[in-house]
Amino acid sequence: MGIPKGIVVEHQGDEIRARFCDLKPGSGFVVDSTLSHGTYLPARKAIIFPLGMPDAASVEQWLQVGGPHLSVPFDPKASRLSADLMSSGANQSFQFARYQD
Fold it and tell me: What's this model's pTM, rounded to 2 decimal places?
Protein backbone atom coordinates (compact mmCIF):
# COMPACT_ATOMS: atom_id res chain seq x y z
CA MET A 1 0.00 0.00 0.00
CA GLY A 2 1.36 3.43 -0.95
CA ILE A 3 1.31 6.74 0.83
CA PRO A 4 -2.24 8.18 0.94
CA LYS A 5 -2.77 11.29 -1.20
CA GLY A 6 -5.11 14.25 -0.94
CA ILE A 7 -6.05 17.46 -2.67
CA VAL A 8 -6.53 20.68 -0.71
CA VAL A 9 -8.61 23.29 -2.56
CA GLU A 10 -9.19 26.84 -1.34
CA HIS A 11 -11.90 28.65 -3.31
CA GLN A 12 -12.82 32.28 -2.65
CA GLY A 13 -14.65 34.22 -5.33
CA ASP A 14 -12.77 33.78 -8.61
CA GLU A 15 -9.55 32.68 -6.89
CA ILE A 16 -8.78 28.97 -6.70
CA ARG A 17 -5.66 27.65 -4.97
CA ALA A 18 -4.87 23.97 -4.69
CA ARG A 19 -2.22 21.54 -3.45
CA PHE A 20 -1.67 17.85 -4.19
CA CYS A 21 -0.31 16.29 -1.00
CA ASP A 22 1.00 13.21 0.73
CA LEU A 23 -1.13 12.54 3.81
CA LYS A 24 -0.01 11.13 7.12
CA PRO A 25 -1.22 7.54 7.56
CA GLY A 26 -4.13 6.98 9.91
CA SER A 27 -7.59 8.37 10.23
CA GLY A 28 -8.33 11.96 9.37
CA PHE A 29 -6.86 14.35 6.84
CA VAL A 30 -3.42 15.48 7.96
CA VAL A 31 -1.03 16.82 5.31
CA ASP A 32 2.50 15.42 5.51
CA SER A 33 4.01 17.21 2.50
CA THR A 34 2.98 19.09 -0.63
CA LEU A 35 3.86 17.36 -3.90
CA SER A 36 2.58 20.00 -6.31
CA HIS A 37 0.76 23.34 -6.36
CA GLY A 38 -2.19 23.41 -8.73
CA THR A 39 -3.10 26.09 -11.25
CA TYR A 40 -6.73 26.58 -12.27
CA LEU A 41 -7.05 26.98 -16.05
CA PRO A 42 -10.47 28.49 -16.84
CA ALA A 43 -10.34 27.40 -20.50
CA ARG A 44 -10.06 23.76 -19.37
CA LYS A 45 -12.27 24.24 -16.27
CA ALA A 46 -9.66 22.17 -14.47
CA ILE A 47 -6.92 22.41 -11.88
CA ILE A 48 -3.58 21.26 -13.29
CA PHE A 49 -0.97 19.84 -10.93
CA PRO A 50 2.38 19.64 -12.78
CA LEU A 51 4.58 16.78 -11.59
CA GLY A 52 8.35 17.30 -11.72
CA MET A 53 8.10 20.63 -13.56
CA PRO A 54 11.26 22.78 -13.49
CA ASP A 55 10.87 26.14 -11.71
CA ALA A 56 11.69 28.03 -14.93
CA ALA A 57 8.72 26.54 -16.84
CA SER A 58 5.12 27.74 -16.80
CA VAL A 59 2.21 25.31 -16.54
CA GLU A 60 1.24 26.09 -20.15
CA GLN A 61 4.79 25.30 -21.35
CA TRP A 62 4.81 22.08 -19.30
CA LEU A 63 1.56 20.96 -20.90
CA GLN A 64 2.81 21.82 -24.42
CA VAL A 65 5.87 19.58 -24.02
CA GLY A 66 3.74 16.75 -22.61
CA GLY A 67 5.07 16.98 -19.04
CA PRO A 68 3.42 14.66 -16.50
CA HIS A 69 0.55 16.21 -14.59
CA LEU A 70 -2.75 15.60 -12.83
CA SER A 71 -5.77 17.17 -14.49
CA VAL A 72 -8.72 17.70 -12.12
CA PRO A 73 -11.98 19.08 -13.55
CA PHE A 74 -13.19 21.47 -10.85
CA ASP A 75 -16.75 22.02 -9.64
CA PRO A 76 -16.88 23.64 -6.17
CA LYS A 77 -20.18 21.87 -5.44
CA ALA A 78 -18.94 18.36 -6.25
CA SER A 79 -18.66 15.82 -3.43
CA ARG A 80 -15.81 14.08 -5.30
CA LEU A 81 -13.07 15.18 -7.63
CA SER A 82 -11.74 12.96 -10.41
CA ALA A 83 -8.09 13.30 -11.30
CA ASP A 84 -6.48 12.02 -14.47
CA LEU A 85 -2.75 11.35 -14.34
CA MET A 86 -1.35 12.27 -17.73
CA SER A 87 2.15 11.06 -18.49
CA SER A 88 4.01 9.43 -21.33
CA GLY A 89 3.14 5.78 -21.26
CA ALA A 90 -0.05 5.12 -19.34
CA ASN A 91 -2.77 7.36 -18.00
CA GLN A 92 -4.64 6.60 -14.77
CA SER A 93 -7.70 8.03 -13.03
CA PHE A 94 -8.17 8.64 -9.32
CA GLN A 95 -11.12 9.73 -7.17
CA PHE A 96 -10.87 12.11 -4.23
CA ALA A 97 -13.83 12.41 -1.82
CA ARG A 98 -14.61 15.59 0.09
CA TYR A 99 -13.38 15.32 3.69
CA GLN A 100 -15.81 16.38 6.40
CA ASP A 101 -14.64 16.91 10.00
Answer: 0.89
When divided into structural domains, the chain yields a total of 1
Comparing CA positions, the residue from 68, 76, 74, 63 lying closest to residue 92 is 68
CA pair distance 39, 24, nearest whole angstrom: 24
pLDDT in tens, 23-66: 998 878 899 999 999 999 999 999 999 999 999 999 999 999 99
Distances (CA, A) of 78 to 27, 65, 87: 22, 31, 25
**CB-count burial class (<10 Å; 0-12, 13-18, 19+) for 17:** middle
Domain of 16 in residue numbering reads as 5-97
